[in-house]
Design a protein that fits this description.
The chain has 151 residues and is mostly helical. 56% of the residues lie in helices and 9% in strands. A 3-stranded antiparallel sheet has the order 1-3-2.
Amino acid sequence: MTTEEVAQAQVCVGRHGQEWGSGQGKDEEQELDVFAQLCPSRAMFAELADKWSMLILMSLAGCGPQRFSELQRGIGGVSRKMLTQSLRTLERSGLVRRTVFPETPPRVVYDLLPLGRELAVLLAPLGRWTEQRTGQMLAAREEFDQAHAEG
């Protein structure tokens, strides 16, 4: 976060449904609220909820430190561009560390920082739940689509 973003975060409205910053003085510290449209925590939540970010964090938690190519092979379907963007966002947010080793050619390794490890622990059950319940959700979708088919 930039200095300005940090300052904004310190005056965020913390009540569900209220507009961020509405009716509050800038000198008062308020709770962050991911439900408030303009609250900085909402943008952070959206970045974290991105499918590539979640998969990167889960991969680093499960497999340990990895090189870019290892991450790309392990996360099926992620493009080089999206992996790069997601890693930079996670690094900028203090979740992932990028380490460049002074070798020829240079070796770059990504691993989790404490905040990233904390979040990955929370994501692991979501990943397992999704794997366990995908069959049920696919069946529900098929049932829904049949019930709402035109014709």
